[in-house]
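Predicting holo structure, adenosine-5'-[phenylalaninyl-phosphate] bound.
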Amino acid sequence: MDLQAFLTALDELTKQASGDFAAAGDSEALEAARVQYLGARSGRLKDVQKQMGALPKEAKREGGMSFNACKTKVQAALEEATERLGSGGATVSDSAIDPTLPGTKLHIGRTHPITQTIEHLKDIMGRLGFSVVEGPEVEDTWHNFIALNIPEDHPARDPLDNFYLTVAGKAVVDASASEARLLRSQTSTVQIRVMENTPPPVRIISLGRVYRPDPPDATHFPMFHQMEGLWIDTSVNMAQLKSVLRLFATSYLGSDVSIRFRPSFFPFTEPSVEADFYWNGSWVEFGGAGMVDPNVLKAVGYDPEEVTGFAFGLGVERLCMGRHNVTDIRDLYRNDLRFLHQF
Ligand code: FA5
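Done. Tokens:
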């Protein structure tokens, strides 16, 4: 073998070894590359070293020195790769990262304030003995209206006040048609679904989204959440309704919160009230409530002579806003991280 061919082989080996060490993604790959190039018995460096014996006598000195230089470079490349993998595989580019600067605070994801509120409300109501049930957001007219004692000509069924859906590709123009489907406008639908499938007594809450074509303003949004409550038993009365809502309000908003009932009307409760909480110096409406109308009890197959009950439906956004002093409901849905990071 002549000296030139030997030096070319050394150059080649240095390049390949450095490239393979730098490309090793983990310590296993690096060890395999080390054995390939620096293995004591069959490493490629060893093979090249053996070829030195075939060099002409006058070329042996230069060949030996070049071999040592090659070995040093290969070992240095191995050390560099070992160090890199030892630090978790990360490479620090001087221009991109200054490791002497203080760390940047990481923004860790968190649940949305409405999700946090829902979890909190479930927790409070759970301690008051209410279990949580779910209901669908796409409803039929039986559960959203008819069983809730909302007759066909009631303005609450108007297509302008609801999100009716197209069924089998066709818009349902007749809102009274039994095949009509809509995004539920209230969680009271879940009362019906539960009573249809459960014999009394019943003590449940249901939290979820409802939809109304209300123009957005500081206190209204077209999609919002309600917490429905229902307690049916042999002798449930209005005083218990007020006690439960008072206990709920003081647990959620604070012990200094008062509650008042204003007479109101809902087709599915009789008598019906609006529930207001005294909060931050003024009365705020949080929802509607009342004693379940006997017509509703009959619609689900209960006997109004045997059971009575109360129901309530509270606005979850309004509760969240009250507790956290949020003055505009739209802030909850702008997805502005500066706002959301406060929760
Ligand atoms: C109802 O939806 C009745 N289903 C409540 C009820 C349940 C009464 C059971 C009796 C028995 P109302 O339409 O008032 O009632 O809505 C209840 C609450 O939802 C309101 O007090 C308010 O807090 C909230 N709410 C209503 N519309 C909106 C809206 N567009 N944006 C945000 N919150 C709203």
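The radius of gyration is 37 Å.
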